[in-house]
Amino acid sequence: QVQLVESGGGLVQAGGDLRLSCAASGSIYSINDMAWYRQAPGKQRELVAVITNGGRTNYADSAKGRFTISRDNAKSTVYLQMNSLKPEDTAVYYCNADIFNVESAGYSNYWGQGTQVTVSS
């Protein structure tokens, strides 16, 4: 069984910073892309940032210049450093990863349970 567990969400004032973490655990052989998504109330879930196994990154326009995605392959962990937060960044943030599950002997896509980020004005 594979799990993704996020941490680091919370309440912050506009202009503040937060760092999200997501650790993968379980029957993992390897991890390809890791990503952060978010879903605001009444809106569809959207991609925030993605990082490949080799460290290449891609960001949504709304995240460029303010957010930084990184990963520690030894710890099977992905991070999202969020700076200069705005009220419109308020959402539930979800971790996502493509993981080779040893038990199933194949890649599957996994989601974390989500962590709330609230930015007050």
List the helices and strands and how they pair.
Elements: E1 2-7, E2 10-13, E3 18-26, E4 28-39, E5 46-51, E6 57-59, E7 67-72, E8 77-82, E9 91-101, E10 106-111, E11 115-120
Parallel strand pairs: 2-11
Antiparallel strand pairs: 1-3, 3-8, 4-5, 4-9, 5-6, 7-8, 9-10, 9-11
What is the gist of this entry?
This protein is mostly beta strands and 121 residues long. Helix content is 0%, strand content 62%.
Q: Which keywords apply here?
A:
4-stranded antiparallel sheet; 7-stranded mixed sheet; 11 strands
Rounded to an integer in angstroms, the radius of gyration calculated over CA atoms is 14 Å
Could you say which structural class the secondary elements and strand pairing correspond to? mainly beta
The helical percent reads under 10%
Largest sheet: 7 strands, mixed
Mean pLDDT: 96
- Ends distance: 41 Å
What fraction of residues sit in β-strands?
Answer: over 45%
Determine the number of helices (DSSP H or I, runs of at least 4 residues): 0
Principal-axis shape: elongated
The count of strands amounts to 11
Ranges where pLDDT stays below 50 over 5 or more residues in a row are none
State the order of secondary-structure elements, H for helix, E for strand: EEEEEEEEEEE
Overall description:
With 121 residues, the chain is mostly beta strands. The protein has strands at residues 2-7, 10-13, 18-26, 28-39, 46-51, 57-59, 67-72, 77-82, 91-101, 106-111, 115-120. A hairpin with a 4-residue loop joins β9 and β10 (106-111). It is elongated. The mean pLDDT is 96.
